[in-house]
Amino acid sequence: KLFFTDYGNAAKVERCDMDGMNRTWIVDSKIEQPTALALDLINKYVYWVDIYLDSVEVVDYQGRKRHTIIKGRQIRHLRGLAVFENYLYTVNSDNLSILQINRYNGTDVQSLARLDNAKEIRVYQKRTQTAVRSHACEVDPYGMLGGCSHICLLSSTYKARTCRCRTGFILGSDGRSCK
């Protein structure tokens, strides 16, 4: 799945399949300007920062179990969001600090370091990566991902895929080759 935020005409947090199909709103009320998003892949939670409402909130992948982690003026300047173990990590663009926020109580907030011009944050750790199983976009005997000549996107399950073409090409009638 692909998770993303939108604060156009109607602010929301959404999810869809990797090929863009099955687009679903998971948060569409009491939300104004969601600007950063992080996933807890193990427990299947979505965290986001709303800089207009000055809050960090969380829901499960279906949009249930919503609650506020932290609220207040210090949220207004947060950019980027990552989750690892018991904490959320974010960048405060006002003072260029990296913040660590306890994701269960929100009261334990610590400044870890200062970084000039940081706009995003990521946690890279083996435990944050899910095990990869055999999937529809694996390389076929001809060296093509999922049998697609240009781009292979996973669809509704790891067993399904959609082929797409690079700009300037169109998908052939076979659904795999680009012309």
UniProtKB/TrEMBL annotation:
GO terms for cellular component: plasma membrane. Pfam families: FXa_inhibition (PF14670), Ldl_recept_b (PF00058). This is LRP1B protein. One of its GO terms (molecular function) is Wnt-protein binding. It comes from the Eukaryota. InterPro entries: 6-blade_b-propeller_TolB-like (IPR011042), Cueball_EGF_LRP_Nidogen (IPR050778), LDLR_classB_rpt (IPR000033). LDL-receptor class B repeats lie at residues 1-43, 44-87. Gene3D superfamilies: TolB, C-terminal domain. SUPFAM superfamilies: EGF/Laminin (SSF57196), YWTD domain (SSF63825). PROSITE patterns: LDLRB. It comes from Caloenas nicobarica. The lineage of its organism: Eukaryota, Metazoa, Chordata, Craniata, Vertebrata. GO terms for biological process: canonical Wnt signaling pathway.
